[in-house]
Amino acid sequence: MILSVAVLVSHLAGSPPLLEYQPEPAELQRARQLLISRPAECIALTNYFLQRDEADPEQLINSRQDRVYQDQGNTYRTREQTLAALQIQALCQANEGLMLPADASLDEAIELGKNARQPHSQAASLLLKTKLTLAQGKTDQAQLLLAQAEELVGQSKQDRELLAKQLQLLQAESLLEQHKFDEAKLAFEQIRLQAQQQGDLELQAWANYLLGDYYRLLQQAELALSHYVETLELLTEQHQYYLKALAAENAATLYAGLGNPQKAVFYANQATTEFELLGNGPLLVGSLISLGRVTRANDDANLALVYFFNAMDLVRIQGDAGLMSRLYYEVGQSYLNLKQFKDALHYLNLARARFQMQNDQPRLVDTLLLLGRLHQDQQEPGLAMLQLEKAQTLAEQLDDVPRLIESHRLLALGYEQNGNYRQALTHQQAFHNYYERASQLNRLLTQSLIQESDQQLQQERELAELHLQKDNLQQERQRFAMLAVGLSLISPLLLYGLMRNHIRCRRLQLKADGLQQSLLVEPRTGLSNWRQLMQRLPQEMAKRQQRSEQWYLNEAIAQPFNDKIYYFLIRVPFMADLNEKLGLDYALKIQQNLGDYLQGRIHPKARIYDLRDGQFIYVISQRQVPELQQAIASIERMFDEFPCPFELDRRLAIGIIGHPFLPKAPHAMDDMRLSDILYLAMAAAHQLSEQTGDATWVELLAVDCQQAAFFNGDIRHCCIQAIHKGLVKVNSSHQKQRIDWTSLVPDPIAS
């Protein structure tokens, strides 16, 4: 099995450069070429070279005869060559999966560099050992090795710049292994920027690739994809086959997980091409298997069979029985997808026999499940039930929940087709029980909501604490100013204190402003929230009240008041239950896309607020609305044209009022009472929507009268009575007689 982390060392670290007078022997040159493609031959070559006798350095230095020098070079090995051979051998052993021998080879190289007093050689060997240690998950040991290597790099006179780059990258990777994500990200970004400035394309590509691993570890698939694709673009003209293959393979896996099979096939093809150029047989076989799977997932099982059979030819040469068993399974599944049952049965039986021989129980369960499906498709219920029950028994022994879920599902389907409904019900119940055991959706949803609430509470606490710190710092500044008058002799010190205090105040003010701004925005959609509405509403109401009073006092004007602000309370059904219907990931993406979309679609002089639970308030001046019907149609069309791949319930229920609600008595309604009337209008529209199954709207409009006293008391009761008495007009998209206002009257439960 090829260890990618070990091969990565071979690309970044390698052995230190040899001295100019010391040419590298042919065995070591050939070993370097075979390090990745054929590590076993690489090990044999280095072992053969290390059997040479050690050369006497004095004879090499004092010799002035070319023939004597050449004989020494062909027969003996120098100290530098021994160091290089040990490092190459360690990498080859790691690539072959021989971690203990690799560790021993590096220990020997470290000891040799120490005895020779060559800090650069010792540091290079320590860096290689650090990489292998990280590959085995030993982060604490890796930290100690990195500390030793850092000290030696500082002492090195040769290759210091190269070793420093390797040290930086390994330190960043160590932070990632320790799950210190912020520090690791910062380190990778700094390495990438430095490499870009220095024109070091290879180091920049590796830092960019590891940033992709960072985002993938945080389950941010799209950001990880962008870094993998950028790595491939950086290396377009380079012969870094292994790194390009890794980046392409990871991109294919992520695209397959995101439901984009075309892109997955494209990058899987690229990965296979790069592995083929690399010349490593096992890596190429694994890449062909991955390519076949994504191709089959793209509904092209015939082409997938071509890839699987090509992989079979390579495996026959290598003689890997485990890989051959997996290929029999993949070929059988492909034939099953093509409904070629005879060929599918042949290869699945071969896979089953080999998995039994190799005692590979999980893959044996998978094979039995496929055989059960095959017999079900061939209308052979007895054989199908036999295979599925064997699969269930093995899965229960392994306590493998995903395979138990699939076995019970297929058994329930088979018994239902046979008319044995009691057994079908038993397996269906078992299916649901195991599914609930495996699924943690409800817990994750609850945890997400709690975290969101805690985050908001934490922001408010931090904001209050920052305000308190700001007040304290202002008091300190005042004290400093008073002391400066009497202590002018120490004015430089006081000036320093004032400047420092001013900078701290400025930083705290900026942080407080940022937190204040974040509290005014709904995090899921990015739209203004109810806090921002409540901040602006009193000022907006006061302004309209003043204009209403001016209109009322101007007796020469007989026209109706036409400077209202319309408030549209919109109930969007699909926003209320996105989490339950689509899951957290899709729901969050849809909410973010809707927020960006609404920001670009609303009227330039209008505003929209997200009140959560699928409710939005759309605010626009009457002067910007020549016809109310046009504004309503624009709102409905705005939500209808929202692009989304899922089926959404877009039947809006819109409640509409204008402010001032009573133009001749504008002060009779405060913001809370006005909001209650607006919710009453939306409730009536929602009632019509449930009756008709269409998008609806209801406008409540007070007649031109001065009976403000009629609205004293519970505003909802008063408004409904005013509707019945004709003091409040009702305009609606449907027959307003169908609204049951009595059902909207709050009726407290008797104690």
TrEMBL record:
<keyword id="KW-0802">TPR repeat</keyword>
<feature type="coiled-coil region">
    <location>
        <begin position="456"/>
        <end position="483"/>
    </location>
</feature>
<comment type="similarity">
    <text>Belongs to the Rap family.</text>
</comment>
<dbReference type="InterPro" id="IPR011990">
    <property type="entry name" value="TPR-like_helical_dom_sf"/>
</dbReference>
<protein>
    <recommendedName>
        <fullName>GGDEF domain-containing protein</fullName>
    </recommendedName>
</protein>
<dbReference type="InterPro" id="IPR019734">
    <property type="entry name" value="TPR_rpt"/>
</dbReference>
<dbReference type="InterPro" id="IPR043128">
    <property type="entry name" value="Rev_trsase/Diguanyl_cyclase"/>
</dbReference>
<keyword id="KW-0963">Cytoplasm</keyword>
<dbReference type="InterPro" id="IPR051476">
    <property type="entry name" value="Bac_ResReg_Asp_Phosphatase"/>
</dbReference>
<keyword id="KW-0175">Coiled coil</keyword>
<keyword id="KW-0677">Repeat</keyword>
